[in-house]
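Students often ask what a holo structure prediction actually looks like on paper. The answer is less mysterious than it sounds. You provide the chain, you provide the ligand, and the output is a string of discrete structure tokens encoding the 3D arrangement of the protein together with 4'-phosphopantetheine.
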Amino acid sequence: MTNRVAIYPGSFDPMTMGHLNIVHRSLEIFDRVIVGVLNHPDKKALFSPAERVDLMKRVFHDESRVEVESFEGLLVDYVKKQGAHTVIRGLRAVQDFEYEFQMTTMNRRLAPDVDTVFMMTAEEYFYIASRTVKEVASLGGDITGLVPDLIRDAIHAKLADQRNET
Ligand code: PNS
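The corresponding structure tokens follow.
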């Protein structure tokens, strides 16, 4: 029996339909996908890393081959700790390339046995980014279909909480 494991790392603040699509497609290639949410304090983030992990666990609750957890430190160390050798990243358009190229080259220098597999984002999700989803939601626009419904509801709840605090 094979056990091909891939790590899908990211900020996921919040997870979008583009991310969901990458995970589903990765499951066609790998036996298990571990979603690694970067645990890094960021004042501008909408959700804490723990909240993002919790939300994504709920999205994938009936998908036994997907695990969601947070990680700290170097990605390549986390990948090795998981006994994996492969990182998955989604590529939307040219604007993603330079950043991904730098990161992948740095990661390969740090750990030559860890490789990165890129997947082109499905065309219907090309324009979706966590940042724009947050902006549209905060300005009252409809984000249905851009993120899973439970994430949409969590975004609205979080924005309402923030408004009540100010
Ligand atoms: O969703 P993002 O913000 O594009 O994900 C970026 C992420 C989490 C993959 C990247 O920031 C990362 O791997 N951080 C861990 C620190 C690290 O390993 N840095 C060296 C690579 S340049």
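Residues 9-11, 38, 74-75, 103, 106-107 surround 4'-phosphopantetheine (CB under 6 Å).
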